[in-house]
Specification:
Blueprint lengths: L1 E6 L3 H12 L4 E6 L3 H12 L9 E5 L11 E4 L11 H19 L7 E4 L4 H12 L6 E3 L3 H15 L10 E2 L7 E2 L12 H22 L4 H16 L3 E10 L5 E12 L2 E5 L6 H19 L4
Parallel strand pairs: 1-2, 1-4, 2-3, 4-5, 5-6
Antiparallel strand pairs: 7-8, 9-10, 10-11
Length: about 300
């Protein structure tokens, strides 16, 4: 069986594990968390769902355990929380240090291992993780704007009275305030007024804030998004999804990770898929990348 290690057993990590189980993905899932009693409780709670979705197995693991050297996919959800009055840049610096410590604590890993970043700000931390883990290109990527694309598509489905699978479109750029809807890739856009488009984009961009205000954090959607990536990795499907990937000149961007269309398969990101973005969309993508690159280069580590 394939082996998945989820670093961080909190809401996001546990819901990622639950989503993997509910998709009937045949895999051994290992939760790793410094709070060992909490981790053990999460493992027991997840095991209680296995009768109904029996292909997965769930275990707890500690840093340094031998099993971590044989993991196929690592999902990193752990990170430092922002202190009162702390700048975003200082928080980033602390989270980069957390990533460095995670790599040290995990110990040696397979050269074929894939790292999926969830911890926010995911784009900048994906770029940092790619440098820290030093794996081949494509084996370290972030969930990026897949979640935002889901937020767009269920809204389109409700507006057009369609099954969500019959809607198409992507949100690109930062998983954050500078993200944008690539309307050139959206089906049914001709039936939307300019006001409709502006409202949809605003709702998608601000949804996380509403969720956080109401219950503290997001976890159902991002857990499902990560499980989607994992299913396509294990099936080597070649599906095209938006992901946060370190770019080396694609779309005229380099030196940062940002949400772009990517082909997903057994080696993680197989390739960046070139879409014919409009001039305006290309400009928005570059501006989003420049914002992230400036933040990354200014981090205090």
């Amino acid at each position: 069986m394939k082996k998945i290690a989820i670093i961080g057993a909190g809401n996001v990590g546990a819901h990622t594990a639950s989503s993997i189980i509910h998709r009937n993905i045949a895999a051994q899932i290992y939760l790793v968390d410094q709070a060992e009693n909490f981790e053990a409780a999460q493992v027991l709670d997840l095991k209680d769902s296995l009768l109904f979705h029996p292909k997965a197995q769930v275990f707890g693991a500690n840093f340094g355990d031998k099993v971590l050297s044989d993991i196929d996919v690592f999902v990193i959800t752990a990170g430092a929380k922002q202190k009162e009055g702390e700048s975003r840049c200082k928080l980033l610096g602390r989270n980069i240090q957390v990533l460095q410590q995670i790599k040290k604590d995990i110990g040696p890993i397979k050269s074929s291992a894939i790292i999926i970043m969830i911890t926010n700000p995911v784009d900048v931390l994906t770029k940092a993780a790619a440098e820290i883990f030093d794996l081949p290109w494509g084996q370290v990527f972030g969930t990026g704007t897949l979640l935002d694309s889901s937020r767009l598509r269920w809204r389109l489905a409700e507006k057009f009275k369609l099954n969500v699978e019959n809607t198409h479109g992507m949100v690109l750029g930062e998983h954050g305030d500078s993200e944008f809807v690539a309307w050139s890739m959206v089906t049914g856009k001709e039936d939307l007024t300019e006001k409709d488009r502006e409202l949809l984009e605003k709702e998608v961009r601000e949804e996380a804030y509403k969720i956080i205000e109401g219950k503290g954090s997001t976890y159902f959607g991002i857990g499902a998004a990560c499980a989607e990536f994992i299913e396509h990795i294990f099936s080597d499907s070649g599906v095209i999804l938006p992901a946060s990937v370190p770019l080396n000149g694609q779309y005229g961007i380099e030196g940062i990770s940002v949400g772009v269309p990517a082909k997903i398969g057994a080696k993680g990101i197989l390739e960046i898929v070139k879409k014919d973005l409009t001039e305006t969309e290309q400009k928005k993508l570059k501006l989003s990348a420049e914002k992230l690159k400036k933040l990354f280069e200014g981090c205090e580590v």
